[in-house]
Amino acid sequence: MNVATTTYTESGGHPSALESVSLSIGTVLTYAEQQLITRLRKGEERAFDELVTKHHGALIRMAMGHVANREVAEEVVQDTWMAVIEGLDRFEGRSSLRTWIFGIMIHKAKDRGVREKRHTTFSAFESFNDDTEEAVDPSRFHQSGEWAGHWALPPQPWDDQTPEKLLASQQAVNAMNRAIEALPPTLKDVLILRDVEGVEAKEVCEILKITETNLYVRLHRARERVRQAVETYLGGC
Amino acid sequence: MAQEESGQTSLEITCQEVVQWASAYLDEHVGDERKRHIVLHLAICAGCEAYVKQIATVRDVVGLLPKAVEQPLDSDRLRQAFAARERRSSPAGRRV
C-alpha cells in the first residue's frame, strides 16, 4: 500500500482528507495523550519508540487473527505505523490515539485478510455467529423438565490460590495462550483489547465498531473458551 | 445446582441465563432488575457462583499473562519515516 497517498480518519481507518493540523476543541484525549502527541509532532524519536513499544505486541496479535501468518501480520502492522506517521499532523483527537491506531490496523488487516481469503483457506477465518453459538456446552444443563436451563454438570469450584497457581505454571500459561491464539478473530479482538490491554468497554466498541451488547456476547464467549482450557488443565493436574 | 441449594421449584432466571450474562454482570453492564435476579440466583446456586468466579479469574489472569516484548521487523525504516515526517513538517517545509 502506498501510505504516502492514504490518510485515515479517527473513526476507524477509512481514507479521507483531513485538513486540521491541531487537536479539535472537542478532543477526547487525556492530558498524557496530548503531551505524547505534542512530543510526536515535535519529532521526538523517543516518543515514537514509546508508542511503538506500548502497542506493537497487541497490534501483531490482533493482526494475526485476520491474516494468514505472522509475516503478513508484521507487514500489516508495519504499514499501520507508516500510516500513523503520515497521519500524525492530521490527527484531531476526536478519538483516543489508541483507538485511531488500532482502527487503522484493523482496517488494513481485514483488507489484507479478505484479499488473501480469495486464494487461501485456513482456520483463522473461522466464522463466528453472535446469535446462534452457545458459550457453554448446552449438554451441561438440563434440557427439559422442571429444571430445564439449570446445571446438570456444574463446574467444580477452583480454590482461592488458582490465579497464582495458573500464573506460576508454564504449562497453564501455555494452555491459556493457546486458547487465546485459537480464538476466531471476532472473539480474539475483544479479549485482547478488553482483558489483555485493559481498554474500556466503550473504547473497544469504538475500535471494533460493535455495540456493547455484541461486545459482551463476544467477550464472554472468549473468556469461556479460556476458562475451558483452564478447566481442562486443572482436570489433568 | 440451583435446585439443590435452594429447595425451591423455580427461580427467576435459569443457570444458563446467568452463565450467558456472567461477563456483562462482572463488568456491571446489566440493568438493575437483571442484576437483582443474578445476585439472588448466585446466593443460592453453588454451580453459578463457581462459574462466575471462574470467569472473573480468567478475566484477571489473562491480563497478567507474560507479554512478549515485540519490536517491528524494520524499526530503522519506521524511524527514518518518522524523521522524514519531521523534516517535511518543520517550519521550512510546513504547509500553511
Radius of gyration of chain B: 26 Å
Taken together, the total number of domains of chain A comes to: 2
Number of helices of chain B: 5
Overall, the morphology of chain A is elongated
Give an overview in words.
The complex is a heterodimer of chains A (237) and B (96). Chain A is an all-alpha fold and 237 residues long. Chain A folds into 2 domains: 3-117, RNA polymerase sigma factor, region 2, helix turn helix motif (Rna Polymerase Sigma Factor, Chain: A, Orthogonal Bundle); 138-235, Winged helix-like DNA-binding domain superfamily/Winged helix DNA-binding domain (Arc Repressor Mutant, subunit A, Orthogonal Bundle). Chain A is 56% helix and 0% strand. Chain A has 9 helices and no strands. Chain A has helices spanning 31-41, 45-64, 70-87, 97-117, 162-168, 170-181, 185-196, 201-208, 212-235. The radius of gyration of chain A is 21 Å and the shape is elongated. Mean pLDDT of chain A is 84; it is low at 1-6, 12-21 and 119-127. Residues 1-10 of chain B have low confidence and may be disordered. Chain B is elongated, with a radius of gyration of 26 Å. Chain B has a domain at 2-65. By secondary structure, chain B is mainly α. Chain B has 5 helices and no strands.
Summarize the entry for a quick read.
The complex is a heterodimer of chains A (237) and B (96). With 237 residues, chain A is mostly helical. Chain A is 56% helix and 0% strand.
Layout of helices and strands:
The complex is a heterodimer of chains A (237) and B (96).
Chain A: H1 31-41, H2 45-64, H3 70-87, H4 97-117, H5 162-168, H6 170-181, H7 185-196, H8 201-208, H9 212-235
Chain B: H1 2-6, H2 15-26, H3 32-44, H4 46-62, H5 75-89
Helix pairs in contact in B: 2-4, 3-4
